[in-house]
Amino acid sequence: MVVEGDGVAVSVHALTYDYHRRGEEDVRVLEGLDLELAAGERLAVTGRSGAGKSTLLALLGGLEQLQTGRLQVGDVDVAALDGDALAAFRGSTVGFVFQHFGLLGTLTAQENVELAMAVASLPRARRAERAVALLEAVGLGDRARHLPSALSGGESQRVAIARALANSPRLILADEPTGNLDDESTHVVLDLLASLADGHGCTLVVATHDETVASHWDRRLSLEHGALQP
Amino acid sequence: MQLRSHLLSALAVAAGLVLGVTGCTGSARSPRPAHEVGGKAELYVALGGDDVAGDRRRFTDSWPQLLFRTNLPVSATFVNLAGPREGAEAIRGDQLPTALRLRPNLVSVTLLDDLERGTPPVTVRRDLAEILRRLGQVDGIRVLVGTAPPNTGSEEARLAFNAIVSGTVRAANARLVNLDGARATDPQIRAQQIADAFARAIRRS
Amino acid sequence: MTWADAWVMAVRGIRRRFSRAVLTVAAVTLAAALLTSLLIAVGAARDRVFDAVSKGGPLTGIQVLPNAPDFGQLDSDSARPADPRPIDDVARRRIKRLPGVRSVVPLLSSGVFVVPAPPRGTDSRRAARDRKPFSGTLTGVDLHRVGELPVTVLAGVLPAPGAVHEVAVTDAYLRRLGLHTTDSRQVLGTTVEFGAPRLFTKDQGGVTVRGRWTKATIVSVVAAQGATGELVGSLPQVRAARAWTAASDTTGREDTDRFVREVVGSSRYSGLFVVTANFDAVSPVRAAITKIGYSSSAPESLIATVRRYSTVVEIVLTAIGLIALTIAALGIANAMLAAVRERRREIGVLKAIGARDRDVRRVFLLEAGLLGVVGGALGTTLGYGLARLVGLAVNNYLREQGLAGVAIGLPLGIIAAGVVGSGLLALVAGTVPAQRAAQLPARRAMGDA
C-alpha cells in the first residue's frame, strides 16, 4: 500500500477572510464560513470564478495565514501555527493538487515526487523506491524519467497527484484539478483521486467551477457570498 | 661605483706614469680562429727586447702577445718579461731570474737588440748559452729561440748573427725558430708572421 | 531539505536558464579576470622594480666598502666613504656575527689591463679598433653564492663555479666596445685577455711594468651593482691577478707603492655583500656595520618608497578590479531577482509541499554562489593566462632592450582569493533575491490571484 493512514476531520468555524490590495478597498472573500468534514469525507466546493474557493483551500492547507475564525484539522489548531510549524503542517498533513499541476520543469516526474519527500527530509535511499511505487499507482511507472515538458496534461496531473501523496497526507486539497485537462484526462484524474481517497481514507476537498466534476463527489457545497451553501 | 672608478682612475694614472699606454693606434689585423697548440694549461714566458716588449703605444700587439692570443689555449697564462732595448746580457741578468721563479713550461727568446746594437758575438754566445743552460734545468720546459728576421740590420750582419744563435741553440737543449719568412715591412704583419713561425715550431716540438 | 537536495535544485535551476547563467558567469569571469590579471601584473611589476632596485640581488642586501663611514652615512642609501679602511677577516667575522645577518659574501677586485675581443660579426677594419686595450677592473666572487649577490644575467649563463677561464662582462665592458646592452649576444663566446700589472725596479732605478696575461671566454653579460668593474669572474682568477700585482718590487718608492695600493687596494677584501634575514633587519645591521667602522650602501629607503607606492598602486588596481567584480555581483543579483520573479509559482509549490523559508533561501543562495565560484574560477584562470600573455609580450620587449624579463609565477594565493572572493561576493549579491524568494507567500503556488 502506498498511501497509509486515515483521513482527518476538519472543523471550520466563523472563517472570515479579507483580501488586501494596496491602494484599493479590502475585498471580503469569506465571511463567517463554517464547515465540518468527517475523516475520509470527500467534498466538492463549487462556485463561480473568484468566489473564494482557492482562498478556502489555501486556508485549509495552511498556504495562507488565518485572519479571523477557527480551523481545526484533526487535533491541530491551524490558526496557532506559523512559519516553520505551518510549513511542517503542509508537508506532513496536506497534499495539494493544483490546476496548473505545479511540477518543477527542471525535474523529472520521479524527481518531482521525490522532491516532496526531500523537503520532508526522508532519507535519500527510501525516496526513489517510494516515488516509483507512487508513479506506478497513478499508472505512470514507465514515465518516471520524463521531464514535465514531455508529459501530457493528464499525465502531469497524475504525477502531481503522486507527489501530493508522497508524504502520506491525511487531507488532500485539489484546486480545479481538471481545469486544464481534456474530457478523457478529466475522467482519469477524477477516478484516480476518488480511488485513492477511497482506498486510503484521505479526507478530500476538491474546488471546481465545473458541475460535472462536482457531481463526482458524495458531498457538494457551493461557495456564495463568502459562505458555503448546500 | 665608487671603488671601481677609484681603481680605474688610479690605474689609468699609474699606467700613464709608468708605461704610457694611452691612445693605442688601430691597425688592420683580422680576427682569426685560434689555432691552439698544446692541450694542457701552460705558462708561457717571453724573454727579449723591443720586438717582444712591443711598441709602447701598442704593447698588446707584440708578437708574443699575438702568439698567446691566437695560438695558445684559453687556459694558458702569458708573462712578458721583455724590456725595451734589452739584449742577451739584460735577459740573463734581469729577466731570467724572474722567469726561473715562475717555472714556465714554454719560453721564447729573441735577441734582436744585440744584432741592432752590434753586441760582440762572443758575449752574445756566452750569455745565450748561460740563459739556455739555466732554463734547461726547469722540468718539462720547452725553450724556443728565434733567429733574426729579415730587415734587421744589414743582411750580412744578420746572417752572421743567426749563425752564432743557431750554433748556440744546437749545443743546448732548445729549439731554433727560423724567422727568415718574416719579411713583411709592416710591423703588425711582421709580428704576426713571427708569431706564426713560433706557433709552427711549438706544434712540431 | 538537506544541503545536497538544495544543491541539486540550484544546479537544475542554473541549467534551466542556461544562457542567462552563461551571461552572468561571463560577467563574473571578466571581472575576476580583470582583478586577477591586474593583481598578478602589479605583483610582477613590483618584483621587477625591487629586482631593478636591488640589481637582481636580495632586497635585503648591504654593500660594505673598505672605507670608514663618513658622517651622515646612516641617513643615506648610498655609501658615504671616508678614509680607506681595510676589510680583513676579523671585520668579516664581526659583521657575519651581527644579529639579523644571514650571509656575508666577500668581493675581491683587482685592476687589470683588458684586451677585448672584437664582437662577433664585426668586420676586420673594426676588429683592430675593438681590440683597443683599456684599464679595467676584474671583480671576483664566489660563484657558488652568486644568487646572494646583486647580479642580473642579461644574456648567457654565469661562469660555472670553479671555471677559471670563463668570465661575465658588464655593460661597462660593452660601452668600451661602443656596444649597447641590446648587443649583448655579440660578445658571448668571444675571448677576452686581461693582464695584471707588476712593477719591476731596474738596477739603474728605472721601473718597468710586466703583465701576467690570462684569457677567458665571455659566457654572460650581467648587470651588477657594487664593486664590480668590466669583468666578473671567480675568486681564484682575481686572487692570481692580485698576487701578481702585490708581488711588485716597489722598493719603498712612493709612486710605485701608491700604484700597487690602488690597483689591488690595501684591503684583504675589496668589499662585502651582506644579506640580512629580512627587510626590517637592513637598518639595524647597517647601523651596526657603521659602528664597526665601515661605509655601506643599501637601497633601503628607495625600497621602502617603492613599497609604499606599490601598495598604493595595488590598492587602486584592486579597487578597480573590485568595482568590476561588484558590477558583476549586481549582475548576479539582477539575474537572481529575475529568476525569483519568474519562479514565484514554483517557489509557492515548494512551500506548499512543506519547504521552509530557509530551504528556499538555501537553494537561491547556492545558485548565486555557484555562479560566483564558477565565474571566479574561470576568471582567475583567464586572468592568469592574460597575465602570462602580457608577460610574454613585455618580456620580448625587455629582452630586445637588453633588460631582464619579469617573472609571472603561479600566484596560488591570488587565484584562491579570486575564487573564494567571487563566491562570497555572489553570495552577498544573492542575499536579497534569496530573501525575497524565501518570503514569498506559499499562496503563490495557486497563481497570482
Helix/strand structural class of chain C = alpha+beta
Percent range for β-strand residues of chain C? 15-25%
How do the SSEs of chain C run, as a string of H and E?
Answer: HHEEEHEHEEEHEEEHHEHEHHHH
Structure summary, number of beta strands of chain C = 12
What share of residues of chain A is helical? Answer: 25-40%
Largest sheet of chain A: 6 strands, mixed
Spans of at least 5 consecutive residues with low confidence of chain A? none
> Biggest interface: chains and residue counts?
B-C, 42 and 57 residues
Q: How many helical stretches of chain C?
A: 12
Strand order of the largest sheet of chain A: 6-7-8-3-9-10
User: Largest sheet of chain C, if any?
Assistant: 6 strands, mixed, barrel
> Strands of the largest sheet of chain C, in order across it?
4-5-10-7-9-8
Mean pLDDT of chain C: 84
| Uncertain ranges of chain C | none
Describe the secondary structure blueprint for this structure:
The complex is a heterotrimer of chains A (230), B (205) and C (449).
Chain A: E1 10-19, E2 27-37, E3 42-46, H1 53-60, E4 68-73, E5 76-77, H2 83-93, E6 94-97, H3 109-119, H4 124-137, H5 153-164, E7 171-175, H6 183-200, E8 203-208, H7 211-214, E9 219-224, E10 227-229
Parallel strand pairs in A: 3-8, 3-9, 6-7, 7-8
Antiparallel strand pairs in A: 1-2, 1-4, 4-5, 9-10
Chain B: H1 2-18, E1 43-47, H2 50-53, H3 63-71, E2 77-80, H4 88-102, E3 106-109, H5 112-117, H6 121-135, E4 142-146, H7 155-171, E5 175-177, H8 187-204
Parallel strand pairs in B: 1-2, 1-3, 3-4, 4-5
Chain C: H1 3-16, H2 18-53, E1 61-64, E2 67-69, E3 81-84, H3 89-96, E4 101-115, H4 124-130, E5 134-141, E6 151-156, E7 166-170, H5 171-176, E8 191-201, E9 207-224, E10 231-234, H6 235-246, H7 254-264, E11 271-276, H8 282-292, E12 296-297, H9 300-342, H10 344-352, H11 357-400, H12 412-439
Parallel strand pairs in C: 5-10, 7-9
Antiparallel strand pairs in C: 1-11, 1-12, 2-3, 4-5, 4-8, 4-11, 6-9, 7-10, 8-9
